Amino acid sequence: MKRVVLHSGPGKTGTSAIQHWFSNHAAELSGEGFWYPEHQLDCNGISSGNLLRVMKREDDTTLPCAKATQQLLAEFENRDEHTLLLSSEFFFKHIQALNELIPNAEFIVYVRNPIDTLESGYNQGIKRHGIKYPFMVDPRIEYGVLKNLAKLLDSSDGIHLNIRPFHTSLFRNGSVVNDLLEVLDLPFEDTSSKAINPGYSLEALEFKRMCNYFDIDDINQSLDRALQAFNQGTSNYSLLDESKQTKIRRRLRNQLADFIKTRKLQALKPLLTLDKKMERPPFHDQLLLNHQCFDAVGEYLQTSEPETWKLLTDRLQSHIPRLAPSPYFMTLTGVDQSCVSGNVDAELHALCKKLSGSSKLGTADIARELAIFEFGSGNQAMAEKYLMVALKERPCGDKIVRLVNEKFLCQPNGNPGQSDPGQSIWARITRLVQILKRDSSK
Known about the structure:
Layout lengths: L2 E5 L7 H10 L1 H6 L2 E2 L15 H4 E4 L2 E4 L1 H12 L5 E5 L7 H7 L4 E7 L1 H15 L15 H11 L5 E7 L9 H8 L18 H10 L8 H9 L13 H22 L5 H9 L13 H14 L1 H13 L8 H7 L12 H12 L5 H14 L3 H14 L4 H11 L12 H20 L2
Parallel strand pairs: 1-5, 1-6, 2-5, 6-7
Antiparallel strand pairs: 3-4
Helix pairs in contact: 9-13, 13-14, 13-15, 16-17, 17-18, 17-19, 17-20, 18-19
């Protein structure tokens, strides 16, 4: 009887390394009776795996596709191999639907230490998905991987799940590829020392986050490749301060321990043991990096990747963002800082100037305070208008740039609610009075 195995991630559990190895050893796998369908790898050796062999993209979503799956299974039936092997981290959220399309399929998934997953996922978001906001974690966080697995284990569909612990110390030669080869009982070994899709150093991470303010989609891959090779910076770091890290670690560890106990998954116990023994990396505040950190990355790119540096600076200087990244970064890359603030509402600008005339606060300070208030009220559109005024008055103001990062861009899910202008008008007037009173009392 033919067999179908789907390695289903989830993300940040070595899927890129697995797909890279399988793609480069498809002939050897076929010789052992395993068919791994061909798929593309980008210049960094990264791909979405076999995603589109069983799923299809519709607008902004990717969903299991019965037609594509049937075509693949029919092709498999006509081949000599006894096992169809597929891999994609995107399978994870669709295991139940894929199980309905492929009866008796086997799903292999990995569970990683939750804290490591959070920080690694954020790193990946900056590298590949244009994230601009600083790292932030909701203290009420739930480890979504465990919730999804619990639903699958509770389903009555008879899903064949093989749940594995993910940590380099648990794998032969530290390679998740070797672990998966052992699970599949294949006589191969991953001996490559090259890391696929490695994380950025802290300096490269912040440099790329600043780049994400601009339209760089078409040069993102070459910039990613260049920044992965930057090895002069801080590689051992955490973006969670000790207090937050302790609380969040405890919360997530308890969720993992409860999942292991409730589901009787003893194979995952080493994750708890490792978490207790592991020495956490030192905290670094990403918003306090100085110009020397950006200079180091810039010098590396100019020296080692001059073509990429030229493409990047040309793009940055011709595509001015609405909101301001770090003034250090703008100086380094030659961006005209006076243009960053974009279109300014003339009436609001005049209002803030008038208020500053009767106050010790400057126009930029008043605009910043009002932006904070509007953001807190859920009115993002008005908050942005005030930010434009503040940035126009003081494009390199550290407090304003920090506000942009902490208040305006720190929205992983986006779309804050819009307040009713009619309801908030008195609140706005009250806020103006509070600013003036506070200033006059100093």
